[in-house]
From TrEMBL:
Organism field: Bartonella rochalimae ATCC BAA-1498
BP-aspect Gene Ontology terms: ribosomal small subunit assembly; translation
Start and end residues of each Ribosome maturation factor RimP C-terminal domain: 103-173
Primary subcellular site in the record, as a coarse category: cytoplasm
PANTHER family with a match to the protein in the record: RIBOSOME MATURATION FACTOR RIMP (PTHR33867)
Presence of keyword Cytoplasm: yes
The protein, known as: Ribosome maturation factor RimP
CDD domains, per the entry: YlxS_C
Ribosome maturation factor RimP N-terminal domain ranges (all copies): 29-100
GO CC terms in record: cytosol
Length: 208
């Protein structure tokens, strides 16, 4: 299967991974997440207001509810305590990627093609390593970033390889909010439709 067609594939690899303690945490929890139907977006240690371990997770369809966060927390917290990866007191935070989400897999770029994103790169491109533009023309090896016209320059299109990016996330816009709400609404309809296809249960089955 082509990786840019793997939206919904729980085994699709991330484009970049953590290092240090965060990498050890990721290695521990990924095998726990998969059987539950979740995949890791990012693990990060934050030092504000004490130490916080932030684990960003999603289902393969890109959703993540409060109940899902609770499920993940109950699954990973005991293992982290047993393995004692973090040797000091910390707060565990399980979160969804959010609307202005990180783009960590090739399928993320496909799914959010046409939206505005901020891209950070290993090498200097067009005189900089931080670029802002619309995602387009996603391929197996990379994507084109459409940078709009300004008072100082014309509109340009720059190809960026996936191997060259160090960080990428969507930029919050009205268009992104509308598209996210529409995608969620369409997904809800699909889930309702699937539920309607299930055979009816015998409601008296467990009566005594």
């Amino acid at each position: 299967m082509n990786e840019i067609e793997r939206m919904g594939d729980i085994d699709e690899p991330r484009l970049f991974e953590e290092d240090g303690v965060a990498a050890r945490v990721s290695a521990l929890i990924i095998p726990l997440l998969k059987p539950l139907g979740f995949r890791l977006v990012r693990t990060k240690l934050l030092g504000l207001n004490g130490l916080t371990l932030q684990i960003m997770v999603e289902r393969t369809n890109g959703t993540m509810t409060i109940e899902d966060c609770e499920i993940v927390s109950r699954a990973v917290a005991p293992l982290l305590d047993i393995e004692n990866v973090i040797e000091r007191k910390y707060h565990l935070e399980i979160s969804s990627p959010g609307i202005d989400r990180l783009l960590v897999r090739k399928s993320d770029f496909v799914h959010w093609q046409g939206h505005l994103a901020k891209i950070e790169t290993n090498t200097v491109i067009d005189g900089r390593q931080k670029l802002r533009g619309k995602l387009k023309d996603i391929t197996q090896n990379g994507f084109t970033l459409n940078i709009e016209k300004t008072a100082h320059r014309e509109e340009i299109n720059i190809f960026i390889s996936f191997s060259n990016i160090t960080n990428a996330h969507l930029i919050l816009t009205d268009e992104l909010i509308r598209d996210t709400l529409k995608k969620n609404k369409d997904l809800d309809k699909q889930l309702i439709s699937n539920d309607n296809l299930k055979p009816l249960k015998n409601e008296n089955k467990y009566n005594t």
